[in-house]
Amino acid sequence: MTSHPNNPSNEPLLPILDQPSSRRTALKAAGAALGLAAFGKAVSPLMVIPENVSVDEFLQQHYKELTDDDKAKVFARLEAETKEDYGADVTISDPEAIPGVKFGYAINLSKCNGNGACMEACNKENNHHRGVDQSYIRVLEMSKGSMDMEQGSTTYDHTVPQDDKFYMPVQCQQCDNPPCVTVCPVEATWKEDDGIVVVDYNWCIGCRYCEAACPYHARRFNWEQPEIPAEEVNPDQGYLSNRVRPQGTMEKCHYCLHRTREGRAPACLEACPTGARVFGDMNDPDSDINYVLKNKRVFVLKEELGTQPSFFYFFD
Questions:
Q1: 209 vs 9: CA distance, rounded Å
Q2: Most buried residue, 107, 216, 225, 300, by CB count within 10 Å?
Q3: Is the previous residue joined to 95 through a cis bond, with omega within 30 degrees of 0?
Q4: Tally of domains within the chain
Q5: Is the pLDDT of residue 151 over 50?
Q6: What confidence tens digit (pLDDT) does each residue in 261-310 have?
Q7: Cα separation of 97 and 112, whole Å?
């Protein structure tokens, strides 16, 4: 029997489906079996693949293709893994986009004083790695009269506010034309009907193309497995939002969809002591966000790029 050029020993490749394996092993075997140029493109040198990933996880279908029964099994597996890894009992849900709703966010820059409470709330709500000062929000300290984000500082440690400064929180802008979605080679990120751009952490291959494409520096990469004390794990988790993310995957702000799709406010808004944050349904004429859009002079960041953000800024 003639050997395949990518499998000269003719050893069977299918048994990897019948035993525990790592995603790295499975990728290697699949590449040897297929020998496809497309596969080579997908397996980028930029990938960071965690070890000891189960075959079930590796073979999991794309989130959009999962049936309700499939999802229930996936959520149960992830809940058990969280219990084993973090010693915490959690519940993972799958709140769907509310028909007819389009979420939007606005920041009153006249009220934001750079206190950073929003960042702290984001860190706790979204089960961020405690080993680093991680948050989906960056608060830029800006010189009055300038809108040059590149000159803003996120490392200030003096008392705030400073008289000659203003403060501008920046996070995912939930663009209607998101470049991060366009560049993803495996469709691990997409925009949902309510305007929220999400990531399927189990489908992401960690190539970081989306991070490079985002003009707002709003994407984060998990360089290591998150470390969170059991008593600090937020047990109210969403599959596409704040569940503990695997090492080697991308993540981003998701408007706390596990909260907002249930009628609650984002954690950062609840934590803001100055009332600078406004959130709501832009399709609801009586919403707070609609009032801002109709009655304030609002602007978006980097409008010239055509990303069409659903995140707005205004001054009183």
A1: 36
A2: 107
A3: no
A4: 1
A5: yes
A6: 999 999 999 999 999 999 999 999 999 999 999 999 999 999 999 999 99
A7: 29
Distance CA 15, CA 11 (A): 10
Note whether 216 and 173 are within 8 A (CB): yes
Find the domain containing 40 and state its range: 15-53
- Examine residue 184 and state whether it is found in any structural domain, yes or no: no
Domain presence at residue 146: no
- 220 φ/ψ angles, rounded to the nearest 5 degrees: -125, 145
Whole-angstrom distance, CA of residue 238 vs CA of residue 230? 18
89-129: per-residue pLDDT in tens?
999 999 999 999 999 999 999 999 999 999 999 999 999 99
Within-domain flag for 117: no
Residue 61 CB coordination number (10 Å): 12
Torsion-angle region of 100 (φ positive above 0: left; ψ -120 to 50: alpha; else: beta) = left
40 in a structural domain: yes
| Cα–Cα distance measured from residue 160 to residue 50, given in angstroms and rounded to the nearest whole number | 41
Nearest to 225 by CA among 122, 86, 63: 86
CA dist 245 and 209 (Å) reads: 18
Whether the predicted pLDDT of 5 surpasses 50: no
Distance in angstroms (rounded) separating the CA atoms of residues 233 and 237: 10
d(CA 254, CA 267): 11
Instruction: Tell me if the bond preceding 273 is cis, omega within 30° of 0.
Output: no
Query: By CB neighbour count within 10 A (0-12 exposed, 13-18 middle, 19+ buried), where does 103 fall?
Result: buried
Which stretches of 3-161 are DSSP H helices? 23-34, 37-42, 55-58, 68-86, 117-125
By the 10 Å C-beta count (0-12 exposed, 13-18 middle, 19+ buried), 83 is classed as: middle
